[in-house]
Amino acid sequence: MKKLILGGLLLFSVSILANTAPDTSVSIVEKDCVIVVKQTNLSGEVVAALILTVESSSEADCKQKSDNVLKAVEKGDLKLTPL
């Protein structure tokens, strides 16, 4: 039984390590800030993503909102959609 549990934990750990930490990119389209948060596997393929469009008054404001979104994803308050 212990071997089964340890094997399951090892498999779970490997699956977590197979994906990179979420990464954000920001684009400003007119007065909207488009925030893309994506997670890739070690091969560089996108495995999960979140795309948000929010109003923004400046590039600095957009960057701040992007940082807040990334923190929310890392905390688990926002979830990425598996692809």
Textual characterization of the structure:
This protein is of the alpha+beta class and 83 residues long. It has one domain (20-82). The protein has 2 helices and 4 strands. The chain has helices at 2-17, 59-75, and strands at 23-29, 32-40, 46-55, 81-82. Strands 1-2-3-4 form a 4-stranded antiparallel beta sheet, covered by helices on one side. The N and C termini lie far apart (34 Å). The relative contact order is 0.18. The model is unreliable at 1-17 (pLDDT under 50).
Q: Which whole number gives the mean pLDDT?
A: 76
Q: What is the alpha-carbon Rg in Å?
A: 17 Å
List segments where confidence is low: pLDDT < 50 over at least 5 consecutive residues: 1-17
Oligomer: single chain
Distance between the termini: 34 Å
Strand order of the largest sheet: 1-2-3-4
Keywords: Signal
Signal peptide: 1-18
Characteristic terms for this protein:
about 80 residues, alpha+beta, 2 helices, about 40% helix, signal
Write a compact overview of the structure shown.
40% of the residues lie in helices and 34% in strands. It is an alpha+beta fold and 83 residues long.
Q: What layout of secondary structure does this protein have?
A:
Blueprint: H1 2-17, E1 23-29, E2 32-40, E3 46-55, H2 59-75, E4 81-82
Antiparallel strand pairs: 1-2, 2-3, 3-4
